[in-house]
Backbone:
């Protein structure tokens, strides 16, 4: 059973006007209904976002997270369904631009649901300990920086970091 997205869209639109409706039409928000309910906010569930840099499909990727940082760990602790909002930015795929919007979505739902944004492959400034591409050829996409590669990059991210099977809205 999918959550009442229209009611949530109305809540969020008070702060961001028609931008939220644009997101809904473009289908950039993912509803994931297989992960568990988070419950009350914890120390990990701060109002400030957490930025993580990782390799996905062999390319440096930035993930901005509001809510739990590891959904695989969270899903093993509970069994109730929950929602995960995944934001895929436009071009350029810089996730920091969406921080205020993501914080508003996270707060609008009482910090019960994680809100994550995943950058486009290579559209980030990785820390000094990381290069733009991974040294290992494991899980690489031939042209991860091209259009088809960017699509595959997002699918790989969902497979690796979001447990269960997502439902899209």
Residues:
């Amino acid at each position: 059973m999918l959550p009442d997205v229209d009611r949530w869209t109305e809540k969020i639109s008070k702060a961001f006007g028609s931008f939220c409706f644009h997101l809904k039409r473009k289908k950039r928000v993912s509803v994931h209904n297989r992960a568990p309910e988070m419950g009350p906010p914890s120390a990990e569930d701060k109002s400030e976002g957490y930025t993580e840099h990782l390799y996905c499909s062999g390319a440096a990727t930035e993930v901005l997270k509001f809510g739990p940082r590891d959904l695989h760990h969270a899903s093993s602790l509970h069994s109730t369904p929950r929602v995960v909002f995944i934001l895929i930015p436009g071009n350029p795929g810089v996730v920091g631009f969406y921080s205020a919007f993501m914080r508003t979505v996270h707060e609008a739902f009482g910090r019960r649901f994680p809100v994550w944004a995943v950058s486009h492959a290579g559209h980030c400034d990785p820390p000094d300990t990381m290069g733009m591409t991974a040294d290992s050829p494991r899980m690489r996409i031939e042209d991860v920086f091209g259009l088809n590669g960017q699509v595959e990059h997002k699918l790989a991210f969902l497979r690796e970091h979001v447990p269960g099977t997502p439902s899209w809205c």
Q: What stands out?
A: Helices lie at 5-16, 19-26, 71-77, 99-108, 147-161. Residues 5-168 form one domain. The radius of gyration is 16 Å.
